[in-house]
Amino acid sequence: MPGMTSTPSHPFGTLGSHLYLIVGIIITVAMALNLAVYLFAESKPRTDIQKTEAQNIVATATSSNTTLSFLSISFGAIWIIDGMLQLRNGMPNGFVSNIIRPAFVNAPSFLRPLGDLGAWAWNINPFRVDLATAWIQLFIGMALVSLKPSKTWRLAIYLSIVWELIVFCIGNGFGLFYKEAAWYSGAPSAILIYLLVSVELLMASNGKNKFPTSQRLGWGLGIFFLVGTLLGALPSEGYFKPNGFFTMITSMAKNRQPEVFSNLLNAAANITEGRGSIISLILISLGLIIATALIVAPSSVATIYLTIIASLVMWATVMDFGVFSPTGTDFNSGLPIIMVSIALLMEKRKNLSNIDEPVKSVSDKVLLS
């Protein structure tokens, strides 16, 4: 994955202990907010929905919007952390060489001017451009974390969609052309999961509910896994070589990161040594199973848990959590996929409740307007 370069191991990692503390506080606050939203929804009496149509709408909205609030708060926190990571010392001078150029290394010639455009824009003033991109992400994150949707919240959603498309096309080179692209390395690009969530939040805020939230999110994840699996199946990505996985994972184990994570990567590398072809076949098969299941049965609990477990294992090993390099500015695809999968579980639980479905499309619009 572009940006995942190697640096010497360190007990605290490149983030430094103070930044770990700030990141930890943000994650803790986000988890507390999500728990508060969940408990508030659960405390609502279900009997009230039988009184009037207005009460029906409010009661249903409370339950339905728990998922949307979870996504908004979770991805808001992720955006804030991404914005902080954007300010790393290695970003201004390392973004072009470590992220843009590798993203277009195997791109068709007609697409490479996009990479050149991105490099040119960045090199106008790397420090100021880096600061501007950080503030864009921080604004999006802070707006999404706010519990009450407003005009600012919607503006942040529209801005996030535009920004996600820019990052995908220019910063990630469409997520298809960098070396070692596969679903287990984060391909076709974490920013597509952000885009999926932004579009879902926007559609919900506008009352666009032709298909249930679980279907839209499940289909989006399913397509993501399908594309990532097909990329990983290409011999040119190098995973079928005997030490394809071993070389990549041992390289990431040298990153400056907490020692426990380096040890985890070294253990994973030892398992993969000389077994590139076998592990590739297993992961390709697993990716196809997950993709098919998410598209066909996105509400299946077994499918959701399989997605969470597989994403967590790959995030901790092949992706190295996405942040332990001088130019690592996000958690890669692992964490976003896990967050969306948890949202699918919440939708599943909601659909098993006795709340009437006919007012669902109205409820989302009411609560998010």
From TrEMBL:
Q: Where are the transmembrane segments?
A: 20-41, 62-81, 127-145, 157-177, 183-205, 217-234, 278-297, 304-325
Q: What keywords are assigned to this protein?
A: Membrane, Transmembrane, Transmembrane helix
* Highest taxon of the lineage: Bacteria
Keyword Metal-binding in the entry? The reply is no
User: Which organism is the protein's source?
Assistant: Acidithrix ferrooxidans
Q: What is the protein name for this chain?
A: Uncharacterized protein
